[in-house]
Amino acid sequence: MLANAIGIVFDGLAYGCLLFVISIGLSVTMGLMNFVNLAHGAFAMVGGYACVVAMNRAGVPFLAALPIAFVVSGLAGIVLERLLYRRLYRATHLDQVLFSIGLVFMSIAAATWVFGSQQQPVRLPDYLRGQVHVLGLDLGAYRLFLIALVAVVTVALAMLLEGTRFGASIRASVDNQQASAGLGIDVYRVFSLTFALGSALAGLGGGLGVDVLGLDPTFPLKYMVYFLLVVAVGGAGTIKGPLVAALILGILDVAGKYYVPQIGSFVIYVAMVVMLLLFPSGLFGRRT
Amino acid sequence: MSAVTPSVAHADASGRLATLRWSRFETLFWLVPVAGFFLFPKYLTLGSQILIMGVFALSLDLILGYARIITLGHAAFFGLGAYTAGLLARYGWGEPLSGLAAAAAVAAVAGWVTSFLIVRGQDLTRLIVTMGIGLMLFEAANQAAWLTGGVDGLSGVEMGKIFGMFGFGLSGRTAYVYSLVVLFGVFGLVRTLVRSPFGLSLKGIREGEKRMPAIGVSVRRKLTAVYTIGAGIAGIAGALLAQTTQFVGIDVFGFQRSAEIMIMLVVGGAGYLYGGLIGTAVFMLLQDYLSNLNPVYWQFWLGLLLVLLVLFARGGLMGGLTALDERWRRRGG
């Protein structure tokens, strides 16, 4: 019983870590520019496909394919931000929603056309398969890897935000865009770079998630709600918020599907709606 | 400026107040579907679909165009109406008009209940809550397959005759006239509502939400009312679909449906009432023609259309038309 519960918590943590690494970009985008980007999942999908193509067509090992996913999605982020997103910073939320839905449709159609609508298979390297014996428990090796990698990424992000000048400009711009601009911080440049970083991280998450979440052209739509939930419940503009929210969501989702499979999906929505009602600006969000 | 333009813009620009009188163009507009009945007897099924989606678009226009509530889960009420009418007919009560009323009531109650989640909170919260409700209902319908038929859909919806006289036949004529009459009736109600003091208070909320309480308007109550009415009308649209096609598929709850109706509305122009109808007609005709060619291409072009619309053509078709109208007025006087 207890072993089961621990297993569930562990699985949930891994799932939550994956959600976090994908959603962190969205959180900063929303907090920084107040831009509702429903197409964030598309960047994750791009990373996933980059990873799969690198592995299956170019024979690149998994661990090397992940940075490729990171870079490809980051580049996609830079290009799209410069060309399109930039024009809509001052637009209404509705316009942003419509625009990003349009991007989602385009990305799904493009992915279907290029890769077909089936799930993409991925062969994990042998050392990441199977189970690892830790403290008397058998834990999935891949999930352990996921958690470890995301922990490293989180620490790196925190160090970036707290320890570098660029991180300080990000925090300043999130707090008060106008005042930061008034102090000489190039807010648009900050945003471009963070958007690129966020997309890159989403791509990394997409690559990592091919095994856990699956990868098919409808990925951006399927998981859109989860990314949005993580950001809304956690609070846009922070790292802590989405991290906590993602972990909670991950654990609840896995637990819900295990203990009450008939209404598994409900558990998430109900729990999240309740949390949104209690914390309208998110757990760690700021009141705008 | 945004893809949603304030309503009654043309009346403001020319200095006229909103009235309830039907202008020439409106009369002309409504003659088109009537003419369609006689001119295109083979396309009446498609015609009914367009009319039904027109009702759905109207309901969204109230919520999105007039009350500026961004919702990606409006199909929830559509689906509730569809299943209510479908289930009623399936289990013996085949009278269409009362089925319609029941569907509207169920959807309106659902709208009222969920409005409490909607009227507080910011855009992102609303978006997620509405999406979440839509998804939850989809899951519920899926799980309750014993009731709803699940993914296979609800069949065996047998409709009785309207007023005991007009049966739903294969020709689709009764369905078309039925849908048209309901659309016109609903439109008349909504039009009156929007041009009434209630509509003015909505406009006030749009333009200065924080100031409205200063003149004694309860923003929450107005938004709740609008949302409930919009939900009820969406339920009517759903019921129409169930009754005319005698089938309810689970996609009535799907995100695709919510997204599509939003697109139809925005293409036509939100906040004009007629925008929803025009956009729906254009969209569905295009979809009928293009998606048969290649469904993947359709999705791509649809996405591209949205992106271009937001970047260049805010206000949709009606926005463009009113802009032209204003320019013409200014020149001609």
Compact summary:
The complex is a heterodimer of chains A (288) and B (333). Chain A has 288 residues and is mainly alpha-helical. Chain A has helices spanning 2-33, 40-56, 62-83, 93-115, 141-163, 165-175, 177-182, 187-209, 219-222, 224-234, 240-259, 264-278, and strands spanning 131-134, 137-140.
Give an overview in words.
The complex is a heterodimer of chains A (288) and B (333). Chain A is an all-alpha fold. Chain A has one domain (2-109, 139-278): ABC transporter involved in vitamin B12 uptake, BtuC. In chain A, 72% of the residues lie in helices and 3% in strands. A two-stranded antiparallel sheet of chain A has the order 1-2. In chain A, helix 1 crosses helix 10 (224-234) and helix 2 packs antiparallel against helix 3. Chain B is an all-alpha fold. Chain B has a single domain (32-278), classed as ABC transporter involved in vitamin B12 uptake, BtuC (Orthogonal Bundle). In chain B, 71% of the residues lie in helices and 0% in strands. Chain B has helices at 9-14, 24-39, 44-66, 75-90, 96-119, 123-143, 145-148, 173-194, 197-208, 219-245, 255-268, 274-290, 295-312, 316-332. In chain B, helix 11 crosses helix 12 (274-290). Chains A and B meet through helix 4, helix 10 and helix 12 of A and helix 6, helix 11 and helix 13 of B.
